[in-house]
Amino acid sequence: xxxxxxxxxxxxxxxxxxxxxxxxxxxxxxxxxxxxxxxxxxxxxxxxxxxxxxxxxxxxxxxxxxxxxxxxxxxxxxxxxxxxxxxxxxxxxxxxxxxxxxxxxxxxxxxxxxxxxxxxxxxxxxxxxxxxxxxxxxxxxxxxxxxxxxxxxxxxxxxxxxxxxxxxxxxxxxxxxxxxxxxxxxxxxxxxxxxxxxxxxxxxxxxxxxxxxxxxxxxxxxxxxxxxxxxxxxxxxxxxxxxxxxxxxxxxx
Length: 253
Known about the structure:
Layout: E1 7-18, E2 21-32, E3 36-40, H1 47-54, E4 62-67, E5 70-71, H2 77-83, E6 85-88, H3 100-112, H4 122-126, H5 129-138, H6 154-166, E7 172-176, H7 184-197, E8 202-206, H8 210-216, E9 219-224, E10 227-232, H9 234-238, H10 241-251
Helix pairs in contact: 3-5, 3-6, 6-7
């Protein structure tokens, strides 16, 4: 029996203006629960600003944001994180001089909401090791528990960032350019990881790699000059004349 709407996050007439420049204009999004929703568009389309509005880095000039039917427009980033909205690669900072296991353990302490137990016996921290190992296993890092985070290759460092984010137990996970700067092998590994993560939660991602978007996204919103000009699955948006002209055509030129 369902007691929640199929829509987990919705924006209504969302607008952001910076000193007279409109970066986001009248954006209406409906993100379905349990889906992967991608936001794509050419450089300067306002994707980052939209993402920052959703994660409360910026407050909108106009419009509203609702999460599980609740208006969260005026809330801060920490407040929405407590509700279950977590942005990867921002909240999940990596501590390079700590081990992989210690990084995830800190995220678990953060989720628990009390002190970091620096003055308590080590056994207090060791009680969280099994849970931390579980998250690391889910991202394929169970063979690197005692490695220093700063020594990990770039792709595996990104996997650790996702593990620390998952340790926060988000209901809605936002990924900002998850494959940026990666080689083909790391891109494939990260795409597999995102697909596994989506089994238990909803994901919104901004992503430039159209191959990854085509493979993963259930719904794609195409943003151009601050507005969403097309929405649907990959086949639908890639056939849209506005998308071809503004984004996909330029990308394949």
